[in-house]
Amino acid sequence: MNQKPLAERMRPNTLDEYVGQEHLLGVGAPLRLIFDKNFVPNLILWGPPGVGKTTLAKLIAKATQRDFYILSAVTSGVKDVRETIARAEQVSIFKKNTPILFIDEIHRFSKSQQDSLLAAVEQGIIILIGATTENPSFEVIGPLLSRCHVYTLKHLEEKHLWKILDKAIHHDEILKKRQFQIESHQLLFQYSGGDARKLLNLLEIIVNHSLNDPIIINNEIVQTLLQENIALYDKNGELHYDIISAFIKSVRGSDPNGALYWLARMLNGGEDVKFIARRLIILAAEDIGLANPNALLLANACFDAVHKIGMPEARIILSETTIYLASSPKSNSAYMAIDKAINLASETSNAPVPLHLRNAPTHLMKNLNYGKGYQYSHDFDGNFVDQQYQPDIIRNTVIYQPGDNPQEKNILERLQRWWRKRYGY
Fold first, then answer.
1. Which residues are paired to 129 by β-bridges?
2. What is the rounded distance in angstroms from the CA atom of residue 303 to the CA atom of residue 317?
3. How far, in Å, CA of 284 to CA of 186, rounded?
4. What is the β-pairing status of strands 43-46 and 127-132?
5. Residue of 296, 395, 389, 285 whose CA lies nearest to 338
6. Which of 33-42, 172-181, 399-408 has the lowest average pLDDT?
7. Between these two residues, 397 and 373, which has the higher pLDDT value?
8. Do residues 373 and 341 touch, judged by C-beta distance below 8 A?
9. DSSP β-ladder status, 215-217 and 180-182
10. Dihedral, CA atoms, 290, 293, 296, 301, nearest 10 degrees?
């Protein structure tokens, strides 16, 4: 008889056993209300691997006493979807509660596969719960997404990993028979990366290589065993996020050679080329930004091109874009500016719009001086006039600070001519 993996043995059976996601499952939180009120909407659970998406779907079905059907988008086609929906429809005739259809990795479903779900969702034949590691705005068709509530799950924190580790050691039917000595845990948690499955897989590797008690856990042992068992550890693509992180950081760090190496690792592993191209678009805006505005245009063109062409030719387009972005000057000024603006807007959310900036479509608004005093920029030399564009409470606050690169030095010179008090001249 094959023994279940530790991660499967430790899968929670009740909500009380579930670890993490307090923002969704705490008192009064949106998913907690599902358990409390027995009302299940169509859901998309978006989050990184190993944070409990599948477990949460199963617990919802169990708590609300609904039949539960599960399909993997990796192995299931349109025929599988239709057959599962037909079975669910037959069963629902004899039961009060609508069954749940759980689609794991729903982002891997094609448009036609997602279309095959739409009618059943619209007619209430099934309740759809989809799990995805990708932004559903990009990967789920609009008609289906509009009928689902999207909830974001987070990486597990250290306190959550400690709780999972302690429970595995003291309550698992096999591990509780062994003795453990934890000397250090930093690398164990670091390599887990907020992923419960990775943590338990690592723990299982350590246990399987420890013949005698106590089983020692420390940084040196974790490092050694991880290197020896990297194929086992990565059998389900667990290093996916580590490699994309290395790729992005290499481009950000202006090393085209490192970036191309990690790009090749992803391509050899069968990574979705659209996933890589999307990350390049984000990087072009976040890390290159106004130092080279053409970077965003090229990254967007790269996404369109690989979407049309696919592999193997897409590798050339990704290579060209990667080299261009890695070799470009870098600036995160736009990224920093919008975050500063969002924080400032949150702190001053009640600040009124100055009257001269307000729209005045009615006579009453005009009588209240809406729009009075506004100066039309194009009526002045150079199409510029010095007037107030911020609420009084943050008047003359500098939000955008140009980066130290040739492109933004030109921007700074213009801003200094226009706004001498803010940027100095």
1. 43, 102
2. 9
3. 33
4. parallel
5. 285
6. 33-42
7. 397
8. no
9. parallel
10. 180
H-assigned helices in 125-272: 136-139, 142-145, 158-171, 186-192, 196-208, 219-228, 230-233, 240-252, 256-268
* 18: number of Cβ within 10 Å: 15
CB 258 within 8 A of CB 323: no
Query: pTM for this structure?
Result: 0.57
Q: For the chain, what percent of residues have pLDDT higher than 70?
A: 92
Domains of the chain: 21-152 (3.40.50.300), 158-233 (1.10.8), 240-327 (1.20.272.10), 353-423 (1.10.3710)
pLDDT class for 89, splitting at 50, 70, 90?
confident
Averaged over 36-52, what is the pLDDT? 83
- What is residue 276's predicted lDDT score, i.e. its pLDDT? 92
pLDDT, average across residues 104-131? 83
The pair of three-digit structure tokens given for residue 68, joined into one six-digit string: 């539960």
| H helices present in 310-357, as ranges | 314-327, 333-347
Please tell me the predicted confidence (pLDDT) of residue 321: 96
Residue 225: φ, ψ to 5°? -70, -35
How far is Cα 54 from Cα 313, in angstroms, rounded to an integer? 35
Give CA–CA dist 159/99, Å, rounded: 35
Tokens for 162, please give them: 């400690």
* Highest mean pLDDT: which range of 158-162, 170-174, 300-304, 391-395: 300-304
Structural contact between residues 218 and 189, judged by C-beta atoms closer than 8 angstroms:
no
Distance of CA 352 to the CA centre of its chain: 34
